Every structure is written in C-alpha cells, then in structure tokens.
Amino acid sequence: MATESLEPDSSISALDDKKDVLSQLFVSGKFERLLEEIEAGSGQVSATIRSVYDSDEQNDFEQALEVRLQTNSKEIERMCNKNYQGFIEAVGKLDEVRADSDSLKSQIIKVDKSNQHSGIDVLAKFSELEQGRNVQLNVMRTIENITMCIPALEMYCRLLDQIDKKQHYGALKTLEHLEHVTLPKVSQFTFCNLMTERIPEIRQLIKKKSRADIREFLEKVREKSEYIGEVAMHQTLRHSNIEMMKEVISRINPLQDQETDLCAQDLLNFSPVYKCLHIYSVLGAREEFESYYRDQRHRQARLVLQQRHGQWEDSIQLFKSYFFQIAGFFVVEDTVMHTTQGLVTSTVADDLWSMAVHRIMAVLRSHSTTCREIAILMGIKELVVWFCQTMRSYGYSVEKLFELLLELREMYVDILMKNFADDFARDFRRSTFIPVSVKTEGEYQKVCSTLNFHDPELARAAFPKQFKFSELVLQTFNLLKDFIKNCNLFTYKLNLSQTDIDERVRKSINHLFQRTLSSQLNQLVRNTRLQVQQLAQVYVDFRYLEGSCAELSKFISKTTQTRNEGPHTVRMHGAQVMREACKDCEEQMMILLCSKLSDFVESSEYEWECKPGSNHASKSRFIDDALHYVDIMLETFKSLPPELSRQLCITSCRHMSVEVQSLILSSEVPAISLNWFLLFDTDLNALESYSQSSHVHRLGISSKEILQEYAPLRQLIKLALSGDWSGYITDFESNGPMYPDLLPSNVNIVIKKVRLSEFPKKSRKKGLLHVHGKKESNPSIEARENYYDMIIQRINGLKERKPRENN
After folding, report:
1. pLDDT, tens digit, for every residue of 672-717?
2. What does the angle CA 705 – CA 706 – CA 708 come to, to the nearest 5 degrees?
3. Phi/psi at 614 (5° precision)
4. HEC letters along 134-153
5. Residue 209's Cα: distance from chain center in Å?
6. Were both Cys, which of 658, 671, 722, 748 would link to 756 (CB 3.0–4.6 Å)?
7. How far apart are CA 413 and CA 202, in angstroms?
8. Bridge partner residues of 437 (DSSP)
9. Could you tell me which residues come within 8 angstroms of residue 78 by beta carbon, excluding any fewer than 6 positions away?
10. Cβ pair 609, 678 in contact under 8 A
C-alpha cells in the first residue's frame, strides 16, 4: 500500500520536472540568439540587456541565463571526468622508465673511466712530440723575423742620429722611406706598431727642431737689421747723389766701399728659411710655416717700429738707428720675397709697409710736437728723405711719408716763426732808432745791396752819408731773408714743383708778417719807453720796409727759382701789414703828442678869480713851453710825409684848444672872473699867432686852418668879455654866424662860473668856501642877479646842436 501510494507521487514529480525542463528549453530557445551574442562578445552587452528590458522579459531572460549556466557547468564536469583516467596511466609509465635510466647512467660512467685510464700514456708521448715540433718552428720563424726587422731597426737608428745632428731634411727623407717602404714589410710586429705610432711624434720633432732654426735666423735678423739697413741706405746715398746736411753727415759712421757693395744675402745666411720652408712643404704644413713666419715677422716689425726715447741732443742719432733698422727689416723681407715662392707675397709686404708707415708717422708726429729745435727737425727731415729714397728703390710707396714731411714743414715753420719772433723782439729792443750813417763806399754799397736801395741824390752826397732809415730796417730785412732761406731749405727734396715751393714759401712769409711781425711791430709801437721823435723814426722805417716788400718778393722768386710774377703767384701781405703798422704808429704819435700837450696844460697855474690890474701883456709860461715843444716836433717831422706832418700839426692845435676849453669847463674851477678872461686872451692870441710861424707855412697849412681849431675857444672868450649873453641866445636861435661853435651847455657852465665870481656871497657847493650873511638890498645887484638867472634859464631851454666840422 505504501508502495502504491508512493508511485503516483513520483510520477507527478517526474511530470513536473519534465514541464520545468520544457519550459526552460522554451525560454532558453527564445533567448538563444541573445545569449550567443553575449558569449561571443560580438555585440554590446548594454544594448542586449536594453532590448530585454524594453520587451519586459527580464524574468524570462534570467531563467534562460540560469539554464545556460547549468548546461555549461555539466559540460565542464563531463570533460574533466573523461581525461582524468589517461593522466593517471601516463604517470605510471613514467615511473617505470626512471628505473631503467638510472641503470644506463651507471654503466656509461664505468665505460668512460676505463677509456680514460687506457689513453694517458698515449697522450703523454703525443704532447712531447708536439712540444718539440713547436720549438723547432719557433726558432726558424724567429730567425726569419729578425732578418726582416734588422733593416727597419737600422733605419730607425739612422733617423734618430740625423735628428741629433740637425740633418732635418735627411731625417725627413729617412722617415718617409721608413714609413712607406720598410715598416709595411714588418707590420705584423709590435715594435712596428710602436714605430708607426711614433712617426707623427718624430715629424713634430723635426718641425720643432727646424722651427728652432728659424727662430735663430730671426734673432740674427733682429741683430743685423740695423747694419743691413745702413748698408742699403748708404748704397742709395752713393747711387742717387743725395746731398745730406752736415748735422746728419756728422752723425753717420762712414762705410768702406767694399761694404756698400754687399747685398742682404752677403750679410745674412738665408738657408734656414729655405730649408725650413722645404721641410714644412714636404710635411704638408707649408701654410703653418708661412703663418708662423709672417706672425713672427709682424711681431718683429712692431718691435722695430716702437718709439725710441733719449735726450734731445741724441734725436738725430736715435732716428738714424731707427730708420736703419726699419730699412734693414724691409730689405730682408724683399730678399725673402724674391728668393722664395709665396712665403712673403707682395700683399703681405704691402701690409707690413702700411703698418710701418702709419707707425712711423705717429712716432714722427709725437716727437715733432714736443721738439723746439729747428736744427733737429731739419735733421729728421733729411733722414726721412734719405729713408724714403731707399725704400722707393725697393718698390715701396712713400707718398704718405712725403705728405707727413709737409706736415712737419708746418711745424718747422711754426717753430721758425717763434724763433724769429724772439729775434725781432731782440732787435727791436736793442734798436737805437738813429738813421744809418756810413763813412766809406764799401759800407754804403753794403747797405744799398741789402735793400737794393737807389738814391741818386744820396749817391752824389759826400761822406759820411746818412740814410733816412735806421739799422732796424736792415736787421728786419735780413731776418726776413733768413726766414725765406730756411723755409725754402726745408721744402728741398720734398717732391714739390718749383711753383709749389714758391707758393708755400710765400704763404709762410705771409704768416710771418700777419702773425709774428705784426704783433712785434704793434708791441714796438706801443712801447712806453719810445718818445714821439723815436716813433717818427719808426714810422720812417716802416715805410721803407713797406717799400722793400717788392724786393722781398723778387728774393723769394730768386730763391725758389721761379718767375717773380705769374697768374698763380701768391700775393704778398707784407706791404699791407706794414701799412697797418704805419697807421698804428701815426695813432701812437698823436696819442703821445696830445699827452705831452695835456701835461703842459695841466701844469698851468691860473688865478681864476684874479683882481683887476693883473699883468695882461705877457702870455703864460706853459703856453711858451707848449709852442716850443710843437716847434721841436715839427722839426722832427721833416722826415715824415708832408700830409702826416700837417695832420700832426693840426691835431696838436686842436688838442690844445680842447684841453684849455676842458680846463675852463672843469668842475674843479668853481668861479672865473672877467679879468681872467682878459688875461687868457693874451695866451689865446699867442696860440693863434703860431699859425704865422715858418714851421706851419713849411707844411703848407694856412692860417685859417689853425685859427679854425681855436674858433670855439675864441668865441667863448669873446662872449665872456662882451657879456652879451642875450646876443648869444639870439644868435643861436637864428643860427647866426657869431657863435657857431659854442654849445649851450658849455656857455651855461661858463656863465654860472662868471656869476659865482661876481657874487661871491652866494654859497658854493661841494665843499668850497661858504659865506654867511644877510642878503644885501642893493636893487642893482638884485637886478643883475635876476638877469643872470633869466639868462641861465633861457640857455637851459636851448636845444643842443651839432657843432660845425672843421675841414
């Protein structure tokens, strides 16, 4: 019963299981495609899951996943159960093989030990035989190799011996044969490799040794350059017939004729240069040698061109040595350039020469700017010309040095001008300003030849003869000629044409006139120790020097060997300078003359408020002294041109008139009485009467001209004596002829002084006498005072007018 009751239940469960399986198969079949995509990984899982959720079948899909999981697990378990039995069988067979392999290994070891024991004796005999054979072969190979190496070793020893004996060129040849012929035959040996490695070192050693030879050569060049240059410059001196100054010749050591016939190769061994150049060329280092040689010579050039220092007295000797060394340096360069190919090219030589020229110019400029001796500058110029001629003969350009000589000439002329300025000052200072007097015909001809002077009247005169000019003219003219000679001397041999020389000399003499002589003449004229008489002689001398400028121009043309006048001849400024000096002299004579006359006027002792009854017959003493002085001056002025004498005479009269008038108008004279005007009328008559003197007529001056100078003073005295003050006012307002030269301001001063003299009780200002008291009640006095006040007031109202000019 129990069994029966159970069977229905089991069948029911089986049916349920079948239903579940069928439903799972249905579900899994439904999602098969999606599951395959997930397993294959061909699609995106997110898209697959989204499609499941979009169709709202997620529960079914989960069941399908569960079914697929269970299926895959069962498949894995089935495969593991199937392969496990084969694995167990393989491990068993492997255990059986291991036992057999251990047995085989032990048998092999036994067999190997037996074979090794039986072959020991055979191996020992074979080793002995092999060793003997190797010894025999090594001996034979050693003998063969030594035979091959002996020539290389012998040649290497010969190479070192040649280097020690300074046979550098032979050593170089041995080295080349050793490297290219001998060593390749024994290249397999170690010593060959060592020799091969040393070959560059040996080449450098040969270069170093040969460079030491060239250094010795350069030292000898340095030592002998001055002598080589001296010989070369003496050869130029002998062949070009250059005339040297005594100052230069005296400082030059004379050379024997056989010495001047020597060339640079006779004086210096150039073989080290040629050998070293060839060695470097073979070594392929010619450019290196050329660079080294040129660099060393460039340094030597800088050393040679350095400025020498010493005493001024040794300047010519220093420059002689300086130019000898430079000349020797370039003579050596010229020899190397013409005896080698490319070691010294024309470009290199020109560069060195250009550097030398610039340095020489700098040295000469530096030395010349501090030099003050024209003899030293002239000596340096001669040396430079000599040096230029020498270098030109070797093909070097010397134009810049000649241009420098023209600069030195300007310095020379400046120093020359300073020296001549001292000479002019010395002669002017020592001059006595006395006309030259000669006692013999020889003295007369000497003076005439100096100035090319011709005066028929003086030539006919008896001895002793007297020239109008003083020794100053001769001294100045001789100095001017010496200056011209010195200027021309420096321009000699400067590659200038005669026209250029003449132009430069004329410009120099013009500078001397304008800068130096003009200043010295001005100082001479302004010299306070000179009197009017001496200035008159100076004026005469200046006129003669002015006239001698034409002769000076002829002397320049004769000295420079050119025509005296031409379209391009530089105009001389000497005459203009002398004319200006004459004008200065005229002004100074007038100043001194007027100053002396002013002294006379200042020495007057007038009694300005003299009483009536004073002596009116005789003139004042200072008037006599002044007129006497004028007489002496006019006598002195005979040697002057008439026009100048006439001007000086009229100027002295005008100055006397102005000085006396200034004295009258001076504030130091407070009052002037009418009686003084009567007294001064006598002095004025004496001054006016001088117009009738013989001295005045001799100069061709009319009395009217002299009286015209005293006209303002005469009109003032006339007005004061007449007392016609109202008449002056009327004449002035109507431009009348009575007082044309009287200014209202002067008349105002005089009337105030007359009024103060007439009424002394009035107080006087500025510390003068004061009179205190009551005013008098005299009607006539009051009327007179009122009259004066009215006249003064009217004169103050007059407008000033320009006084008339005196012709």
Report:
1. 888 888 888 888 888 888 777 777 777 777 778 888 888 888 888 8
2. 65
3. -70, 160
4. HHHHHHHHHHHHHHHHHHHH
5. 46
6. 671
7. 65
8. 466
9. none
10. no
Cβ-based neighbours of 760, under 8 Å, separated by 6 or more:
671, 769, 771
- Half-sphere exposure of residue 806, counting CA atoms within 13 Å on the CB side? 15
Chain mean position to CA 166: 52
Tokens 């020469």 appear where? Answer: 353
Name the H helices within 673-762: 674-689, 694-698, 703-709, 711-722, 725-733, 744-758
Per-residue pLDDT, 615 = 53
Kindly state the tokens that stand for 379.
């000596």
In sequence order, which residues have a C-beta less than 8 Å from that of residue 97 and are 6 or more positions away? none
d(CA 634, CA 698): 10
CB 738 within 8 A of CB 727: yes
Q: Is the dihedral angle over the CA atoms 106, 111, 117, 122 positive or is it negative?
A: negative
Instruction: Choose the weakest-confidence range: 293-297, 313-317, 769-773.
Output: 769-773
pLDDT digit string, tens, across residues 362-419:
888 888 777 778 888 888 888 888 888 888 888 898 889 888 888 888 888 888 888 8
**For 571, which DSSP code?**
P
Q: In this model, does residue 13 exceed pLDDT 70?
A: no
Angstrom distances, CA of residue 415 to CA of 375, 573, 750: 11, 21, 62
- 256 torsion bin: left (phi>0), alpha (psi -120 to 50), beta (else): beta
In a 3-state reduction of DSSP, which class is residue 285? coil
Return the SS3 of 468.
strand
Q: How many other CB atoms are there within 10 angstroms of residue 540's CB atom?
A: 23
User: Is pLDDT at 333 greater than 70 in this prediction?
Assistant: yes
Percent of the chain clearing pLDDT 70 (strictly above): 86
Instruction: Report the distance separating Cα 219 and Cα 242, nearest Å.
Output: 32
Residues 370/386, Cβ–Cβ less than 8 Å: no
As a whole number of angstroms, the distance between CA 632 and CA 593 comes to 11
Sequence-ordered list of residues with C-beta below 8 angstroms from that of 653, at least 6 positions apart, any chain: 687, 690, 706, 709, 710
Cα(797)–Cα(725) distance, integer angstroms: 14
Contact (Cβ atoms closer than 8 angstroms) between residue 324 and residue 226:
yes
Listed in order, strand segments (DSSP E) in 361-496 are 435-438, 465-470
State pTM to two decimals. Answer: 0.65
Report pLDDT digits (tens) over 243-268.
Answer: 554 445 545 555 555 555 677 778 88
List the structure tokens of 704.
Answer: 């009217």
Q: Could you give the angle at the alpha carbon of 421 between the alpha carbons of 418 and 422, nearest 5°?
A: 95
pLDDT at residue 613, rounded to an integer: 58
Of the candidates 254, 172, 242, 248, the residue with the CA atom closest to the CA atom of residue 206: 172
Asked if 206 contacts 173 with a C-beta cutoff of 8 angstroms, the reply is no
C-alpha–C-alpha distance, residues 725 and 713, integer Å: 16
- Tell me the C-alpha distance between 205 and 769, whole Å: 120
- Rounded Cα gap, residues 659 and 684, in angstroms: 13
Q: Which tokens go with 659?
A: 């000085």
Transcribe 238-272 into DSSP letters: HHHTPPPPHHHHTTS----HHHHT--HHHHS--HH
- Residue 720 has a CB neighbour count (10 Å cut-off) of 24
